[in-house]
Amino acid sequence: MFGFLINPSKFNKLADIILRPLVFITSIILIMGLFLVYVSPLDYQQGLTVKIMYIHVPSAWLALLTYSIMTFYSILCLAFKIPFGFIINKAVAPIGATFTLLCLVSGSLWGKPMWGTWWVWDARLTSVAIMFLIYVIIIFLSQTFENREVREKTIAIFILIGSINLPIIKFSVDWWNTLHQPASISKLSSPSIDVSMLQPLIVMTIAFSLVGLIIAILRIKAEIIIRKNH
Amino acid sequence: MSLRFQRLILILVTLIILGAAVLLILFNTKQNIVFFYTPTELIEKKISSEKKIRIGGYVKESSLKKLSLNQYEFKVTDNSNDLLVFYEGILPDLFREGQGTVIEGFIENYNSFTALKVYAKHDENYMPASIKKELEKSNQWKKNYK
Q1: Is the domain covering B34-121 a CATH 2.40.50.140 domain?
Q2: What is the pLDDT, as a whole number, of residue B146?
Q3: B8, B99, B124: best mutation site toward chain A, by most A Cβ within 10 Å?
Q4: Residue B103 and residue B119 in contact, taking contact as beta carbons nearer than 8 Å
Protein backbone atom coordinates (compact mmCIF):
# COMPACT_ATOMS: atom_id res chain seq x y z
CA MET A 1 0.00 0.00 0.00
CA PHE A 2 2.83 2.38 0.84
CA GLY A 3 4.96 1.01 -1.99
CA PHE A 4 5.03 4.42 -3.66
CA LEU A 5 7.21 5.64 -0.79
CA ILE A 6 10.11 3.37 -1.79
CA ASN A 7 9.41 2.36 -5.38
CA PRO A 8 10.08 4.92 -8.17
CA SER A 9 7.68 3.45 -10.73
CA LYS A 10 4.85 3.18 -8.21
CA PHE A 11 5.62 6.73 -7.12
CA ASN A 12 5.46 7.93 -10.71
CA LYS A 13 2.11 6.22 -11.26
CA LEU A 14 0.55 7.75 -8.16
CA ALA A 15 2.11 11.16 -8.83
CA ASP A 16 0.57 11.27 -12.33
CA ILE A 17 -2.87 10.59 -10.86
CA ILE A 18 -2.81 13.06 -7.96
CA LEU A 19 -0.73 15.94 -9.35
CA ARG A 20 -3.53 17.85 -11.15
CA PRO A 21 -6.15 17.57 -8.38
CA LEU A 22 -3.39 18.41 -5.89
CA VAL A 23 -2.53 21.65 -7.69
CA PHE A 24 -6.23 22.56 -7.77
CA ILE A 25 -6.75 21.85 -4.04
CA THR A 26 -3.52 23.64 -3.12
CA SER A 27 -4.47 26.83 -4.93
CA ILE A 28 -7.85 26.88 -3.16
CA ILE A 29 -6.31 26.30 0.29
CA LEU A 30 -3.55 28.86 -0.36
CA ILE A 31 -6.06 31.54 -1.39
CA MET A 32 -8.24 30.63 1.59
CA GLY A 33 -5.21 30.87 3.89
CA LEU A 34 -4.17 34.26 2.55
CA PHE A 35 -7.73 35.54 2.97
CA LEU A 36 -7.86 34.24 6.57
CA VAL A 37 -4.55 35.98 7.27
CA TYR A 38 -5.95 39.19 5.77
CA VAL A 39 -9.03 39.15 8.05
CA SER A 40 -7.20 37.81 11.12
CA PRO A 41 -7.22 40.14 14.14
CA LEU A 42 -4.30 42.30 15.21
CA ASP A 43 -2.29 41.16 18.22
CA TYR A 44 -2.79 42.91 21.55
CA GLN A 45 0.86 43.89 21.83
CA GLN A 46 2.43 43.35 18.41
CA GLY A 47 -0.33 44.85 16.25
CA LEU A 48 0.02 44.27 12.52
CA THR A 49 3.50 42.71 12.66
CA VAL A 50 2.00 39.53 14.13
CA LYS A 51 0.95 38.62 10.57
CA ILE A 52 4.58 37.81 9.76
CA MET A 53 3.97 34.77 11.96
CA TYR A 54 1.75 33.19 9.27
CA ILE A 55 4.78 33.04 6.94
CA HIS A 56 7.51 32.57 9.54
CA VAL A 57 6.09 29.67 11.54
CA PRO A 58 4.91 27.44 8.63
CA SER A 59 8.27 27.85 6.86
CA ALA A 60 10.13 26.99 10.06
CA TRP A 61 8.01 23.88 10.60
CA LEU A 62 8.44 22.78 6.99
CA ALA A 63 12.19 23.33 7.09
CA LEU A 64 12.31 20.94 10.06
CA LEU A 65 9.83 18.51 8.46
CA THR A 66 11.85 18.38 5.22
CA TYR A 67 15.01 17.60 7.15
CA SER A 68 13.20 14.88 9.15
CA ILE A 69 12.03 13.28 5.89
CA MET A 70 15.60 13.35 4.55
CA THR A 71 16.84 11.77 7.79
CA PHE A 72 14.23 9.02 7.52
CA TYR A 73 15.17 8.26 3.92
CA SER A 74 18.90 8.36 4.69
CA ILE A 75 18.42 5.61 7.27
CA LEU A 76 16.26 3.66 4.81
CA CYS A 77 18.75 3.83 1.97
CA LEU A 78 21.86 3.19 4.09
CA ALA A 79 20.43 0.32 6.14
CA PHE A 80 18.03 -1.30 3.67
CA LYS A 81 19.74 -0.33 0.39
CA ILE A 82 16.67 1.40 -1.03
CA PRO A 83 18.01 3.68 -3.80
CA PHE A 84 14.78 5.72 -3.91
CA GLY A 85 15.98 7.42 -0.72
CA PHE A 86 18.94 8.93 -2.59
CA ILE A 87 16.54 10.37 -5.17
CA ILE A 88 14.38 11.91 -2.42
CA ASN A 89 17.42 13.39 -0.63
CA LYS A 90 18.67 15.11 -3.78
CA ALA A 91 15.20 16.32 -4.77
CA VAL A 92 13.99 17.83 -1.49
CA ALA A 93 17.22 19.38 -0.12
CA PRO A 94 16.77 22.67 -2.07
CA ILE A 95 13.12 22.83 -0.93
CA GLY A 96 14.18 22.55 2.71
CA ALA A 97 16.92 25.14 2.15
CA THR A 98 14.36 27.54 0.67
CA PHE A 99 11.99 27.12 3.62
CA THR A 100 14.89 27.69 6.04
CA LEU A 101 15.92 30.86 4.20
CA LEU A 102 12.29 32.06 4.17
CA CYS A 103 12.13 31.41 7.92
CA LEU A 104 15.37 33.31 8.58
CA VAL A 105 14.44 36.30 6.40
CA SER A 106 10.87 36.63 7.71
CA GLY A 107 12.15 36.19 11.27
CA SER A 108 14.70 38.92 10.71
CA LEU A 109 12.02 41.27 9.33
CA TRP A 110 9.88 40.44 12.39
CA GLY A 111 12.75 40.86 14.83
CA LYS A 112 13.64 44.41 13.79
CA PRO A 113 10.31 46.06 14.75
CA MET A 114 9.58 43.80 17.76
CA TRP A 115 12.92 43.03 19.41
CA GLY A 116 14.80 46.02 18.06
CA THR A 117 17.38 44.02 16.10
CA TRP A 118 17.63 42.16 12.78
CA TRP A 119 19.75 39.39 14.20
CA VAL A 120 21.21 38.17 17.50
CA TRP A 121 23.35 35.09 18.12
CA ASP A 122 20.99 33.37 20.54
CA ALA A 123 20.66 29.58 20.61
CA ARG A 124 17.50 29.34 18.46
CA LEU A 125 18.62 31.70 15.72
CA THR A 126 22.11 30.24 15.58
CA SER A 127 20.93 26.61 15.41
CA VAL A 128 18.54 27.45 12.54
CA ALA A 129 21.35 29.29 10.74
CA ILE A 130 23.47 26.14 11.15
CA MET A 131 20.65 24.09 9.63
CA PHE A 132 20.66 26.42 6.63
CA LEU A 133 24.41 25.87 6.22
CA ILE A 134 23.89 22.09 6.47
CA TYR A 135 21.29 22.30 3.70
CA VAL A 136 23.69 24.32 1.53
CA ILE A 137 26.46 21.77 2.11
CA ILE A 138 24.09 18.92 1.14
CA ILE A 139 23.25 20.74 -2.11
CA PHE A 140 26.95 21.36 -2.84
CA LEU A 141 27.82 17.73 -2.03
CA SER A 142 25.48 16.57 -4.78
CA GLN A 143 27.70 18.46 -7.26
CA THR A 144 30.86 16.65 -6.07
CA PHE A 145 32.29 13.12 -6.51
CA GLU A 146 32.30 11.59 -9.99
CA ASN A 147 31.28 8.22 -8.58
CA ARG A 148 27.52 8.28 -7.98
CA GLU A 149 27.44 5.61 -5.26
CA VAL A 150 30.15 7.30 -3.22
CA ARG A 151 28.42 10.67 -3.62
CA GLU A 152 25.00 9.45 -2.57
CA LYS A 153 26.31 7.55 0.45
CA THR A 154 28.36 10.57 1.54
CA ILE A 155 25.28 12.79 1.35
CA ALA A 156 23.16 10.30 3.32
CA ILE A 157 25.79 10.02 6.07
CA PHE A 158 26.15 13.81 6.20
CA ILE A 159 22.36 14.18 6.51
CA LEU A 160 22.36 11.74 9.44
CA ILE A 161 25.13 13.65 11.22
CA GLY A 162 23.30 16.94 10.63
CA SER A 163 20.06 15.51 12.04
CA ILE A 164 21.54 15.92 15.54
CA ASN A 165 20.76 19.61 15.04
CA LEU A 166 16.99 18.94 14.87
CA PRO A 167 16.35 18.35 18.60
CA ILE A 168 18.75 21.21 19.37
CA ILE A 169 16.62 23.60 17.29
CA LYS A 170 13.42 22.29 18.85
CA PHE A 171 14.52 22.51 22.47
CA SER A 172 16.95 25.45 22.23
CA VAL A 173 14.32 27.85 23.60
CA ASP A 174 13.72 25.58 26.63
CA TRP A 175 17.32 24.62 27.42
CA TRP A 176 18.90 28.06 27.23
CA ASN A 177 17.91 31.68 27.81
CA THR A 178 17.11 33.03 24.37
CA LEU A 179 15.68 36.23 22.95
CA HIS A 180 13.38 34.06 20.85
CA GLN A 181 10.16 33.19 22.68
CA PRO A 182 9.28 29.57 23.53
CA ALA A 183 6.91 27.52 21.34
CA SER A 184 3.25 28.57 21.39
CA ILE A 185 1.75 25.38 20.09
CA SER A 186 3.82 22.27 20.83
CA LYS A 187 2.88 22.36 24.49
CA LEU A 188 0.74 19.54 25.84
CA SER A 189 -1.55 22.12 27.42
CA SER A 190 -3.87 24.23 25.28
CA PRO A 191 -1.99 26.45 22.82
CA SER A 192 -1.14 29.95 24.05
CA ILE A 193 -2.43 31.42 20.83
CA ASP A 194 -6.01 32.52 20.34
CA VAL A 195 -8.28 30.39 18.11
CA SER A 196 -8.89 33.29 15.71
CA MET A 197 -5.12 33.37 15.06
CA LEU A 198 -4.59 29.62 15.25
CA GLN A 199 -6.99 28.95 12.35
CA PRO A 200 -5.15 30.99 9.70
CA LEU A 201 -1.85 29.59 11.00
CA ILE A 202 -3.03 26.00 10.50
CA VAL A 203 -4.52 26.71 7.06
CA MET A 204 -1.31 28.46 5.99
CA THR A 205 0.75 25.52 7.28
CA ILE A 206 -1.36 23.09 5.21
CA ALA A 207 -1.00 25.37 2.17
CA PHE A 208 2.79 25.62 2.59
CA SER A 209 3.04 21.82 3.01
CA LEU A 210 1.05 21.24 -0.19
CA VAL A 211 3.13 23.75 -2.18
CA GLY A 212 6.27 22.00 -0.90
CA LEU A 213 4.76 18.61 -1.81
CA ILE A 214 3.95 19.70 -5.38
CA ILE A 215 7.49 21.00 -5.94
CA ALA A 216 8.87 17.82 -4.35
CA ILE A 217 6.80 15.58 -6.66
CA LEU A 218 7.98 17.48 -9.75
CA ARG A 219 11.62 17.38 -8.62
CA ILE A 220 11.47 13.67 -7.71
CA LYS A 221 9.93 12.83 -11.11
CA ALA A 222 12.71 14.77 -12.86
CA GLU A 223 15.35 13.04 -10.73
CA ILE A 224 13.95 9.59 -11.59
CA ILE A 225 14.24 10.41 -15.32
CA ILE A 226 17.82 11.68 -14.86
CA ARG A 227 18.82 8.47 -13.07
CA LYS A 228 17.20 6.29 -15.77
CA ASN A 229 19.16 8.03 -18.53
CA HIS A 230 22.53 7.55 -16.81
CA MET B 1 19.61 -11.19 12.58
CA SER B 2 19.74 -10.13 8.99
CA LEU B 3 22.42 -7.85 7.64
CA ARG B 4 20.05 -4.94 7.01
CA PHE B 5 18.90 -4.87 10.63
CA GLN B 6 22.48 -5.04 11.80
CA ARG B 7 23.16 -1.99 9.64
CA LEU B 8 20.05 -0.23 11.00
CA ILE B 9 21.13 -0.83 14.60
CA LEU B 10 24.67 0.30 13.78
CA ILE B 11 23.33 3.56 12.30
CA LEU B 12 21.00 4.21 15.22
CA VAL B 13 23.67 3.47 17.86
CA THR B 14 26.12 5.76 16.04
CA LEU B 15 23.54 8.55 15.97
CA ILE B 16 22.73 8.14 19.66
CA ILE B 17 26.41 8.24 20.67
CA LEU B 18 27.13 11.19 18.40
CA GLY B 19 24.05 13.01 19.71
CA ALA B 20 25.04 12.34 23.31
CA ALA B 21 28.53 13.69 22.62
CA VAL B 22 27.15 16.90 21.10
CA LEU B 23 24.69 17.38 23.96
CA LEU B 24 27.46 16.88 26.54
CA ILE B 25 29.53 19.56 24.81
CA LEU B 26 26.57 21.94 24.62
CA PHE B 27 25.57 21.53 28.26
CA ASN B 28 29.13 21.87 29.52
CA THR B 29 29.59 25.11 27.59
CA LYS B 30 26.23 26.46 28.75
CA GLN B 31 27.98 29.62 29.97
CA ASN B 32 28.76 30.55 26.38
CA ILE B 33 25.44 29.54 24.89
CA VAL B 34 22.97 31.35 27.16
CA PHE B 35 21.97 34.61 25.55
CA PHE B 36 21.51 36.47 28.83
CA TYR B 37 21.77 36.17 32.59
CA THR B 38 19.02 37.11 35.03
CA PRO B 39 19.81 39.72 37.72
CA THR B 40 19.87 36.92 40.33
CA GLU B 41 22.39 34.90 38.31
CA LEU B 42 24.48 38.04 38.00
CA ILE B 43 24.75 38.32 41.79
CA GLU B 44 25.22 34.58 42.37
CA LYS B 45 27.90 34.06 39.76
CA LYS B 46 29.84 37.26 40.47
CA ILE B 47 30.42 37.92 36.78
CA SER B 48 33.33 40.30 36.21
CA SER B 49 32.55 43.88 35.24
CA GLU B 50 35.21 43.97 32.54
CA LYS B 51 33.29 41.93 30.01
CA LYS B 52 30.29 42.99 27.97
CA ILE B 53 27.30 40.95 29.16
CA ARG B 54 23.58 40.65 28.56
CA ILE B 55 20.95 40.76 31.28
CA GLY B 56 17.36 39.63 30.76
CA GLY B 57 14.23 40.19 32.80
CA TYR B 58 11.19 42.39 33.03
CA VAL B 59 11.14 46.17 33.09
CA LYS B 60 10.03 46.90 36.65
CA GLU B 61 6.65 48.63 37.02
CA SER B 62 6.92 52.40 37.55
CA SER B 63 10.70 52.41 37.26
CA LEU B 64 11.08 53.84 33.73
CA LYS B 65 12.25 57.44 33.81
CA LYS B 66 13.09 59.65 30.87
CA LEU B 67 16.18 61.64 31.86
CA SER B 68 16.46 63.62 28.63
CA LEU B 69 15.43 63.30 24.99
CA ASN B 70 17.08 59.91 24.50
CA GLN B 71 18.40 59.03 27.94
CA TYR B 72 16.48 56.55 30.01
CA GLU B 73 16.75 55.00 33.44
CA PHE B 74 14.87 51.85 34.40
CA LYS B 75 15.09 48.74 36.54
CA VAL B 76 15.30 45.21 35.18
CA THR B 77 13.83 42.66 37.56
CA ASP B 78 13.37 38.90 37.75
CA ASN B 79 10.94 39.34 40.66
CA SER B 80 13.62 38.61 43.24
CA ASN B 81 16.47 40.99 42.35
CA ASP B 82 16.57 44.33 40.54
CA LEU B 83 19.23 46.00 38.45
CA LEU B 84 19.33 49.74 37.79
CA VAL B 85 20.00 50.44 34.12
CA PHE B 86 21.04 53.57 32.25
CA TYR B 87 20.57 53.72 28.50
CA GLU B 88 21.15 56.32 25.83
CA GLY B 89 19.48 55.64 22.50
CA ILE B 90 16.22 54.59 20.89
CA LEU B 91 14.06 52.04 22.70
CA PRO B 92 12.24 49.31 20.70
CA ASP B 93 8.49 49.83 20.11
CA LEU B 94 7.56 46.96 22.39
CA PHE B 95 9.63 48.29 25.28
CA ARG B 96 7.50 49.40 28.23
CA GLU B 97 7.00 48.73 31.91
CA GLY B 98 6.21 45.10 32.66
CA GLN B 99 7.55 43.96 29.28
CA GLY B 100 10.34 41.40 28.95
CA THR B 101 13.68 42.86 27.89
CA VAL B 102 17.29 41.93 27.24
CA ILE B 103 19.98 44.57 27.68
CA GLU B 104 23.60 44.43 26.58
CA GLY B 105 26.36 46.46 28.19
CA PHE B 106 28.67 46.78 31.19
CA ILE B 107 28.21 46.63 34.95
CA GLU B 108 29.21 50.05 36.31
CA ASN B 109 29.36 49.22 39.98
CA TYR B 110 27.31 47.09 42.33
CA ASN B 111 23.71 46.92 41.05
CA SER B 112 23.98 49.50 38.28
CA PHE B 113 24.38 48.87 34.59
CA THR B 114 25.09 50.93 31.47
CA ALA B 115 23.26 49.47 28.49
CA LEU B 116 24.64 49.83 24.98
CA LYS B 117 21.77 47.95 23.36
CA VAL B 118 18.22 47.26 24.51
CA TYR B 119 16.10 44.47 23.02
CA ALA B 120 12.42 43.87 23.72
CA LYS B 121 11.47 40.28 24.47
CA HIS B 122 7.92 39.06 23.98
CA ASP B 123 6.37 35.81 25.12
CA GLU B 124 4.60 33.03 23.27
CA ASN B 125 1.07 34.32 23.93
CA TYR B 126 -0.85 35.72 20.98
CA MET B 127 -4.28 37.27 21.38
CA PRO B 128 -6.49 39.67 19.40
CA ALA B 129 -6.52 43.20 20.80
CA SER B 130 -10.34 43.09 21.08
CA ILE B 131 -10.21 40.12 23.46
CA LYS B 132 -7.73 41.92 25.69
CA LYS B 133 -10.20 44.80 26.05
CA GLU B 134 -13.00 42.42 27.01
CA LEU B 135 -10.80 40.63 29.51
CA GLU B 136 -9.87 43.94 31.08
CA LYS B 137 -13.53 44.94 31.28
CA SER B 138 -14.38 41.80 33.21
CA ASN B 139 -11.21 42.07 35.30
CA GLN B 140 -9.88 38.74 34.08
CA TRP B 141 -6.85 40.18 32.33
CA LYS B 142 -3.82 38.46 33.74
CA LYS B 143 -0.79 40.65 34.28
CA ASN B 144 1.54 37.80 33.43
CA TYR B 145 0.41 37.81 29.79
CA LYS B 146 2.91 40.54 29.25
Answers
A1: yes
A2: 43
A3: B124
A4: yes
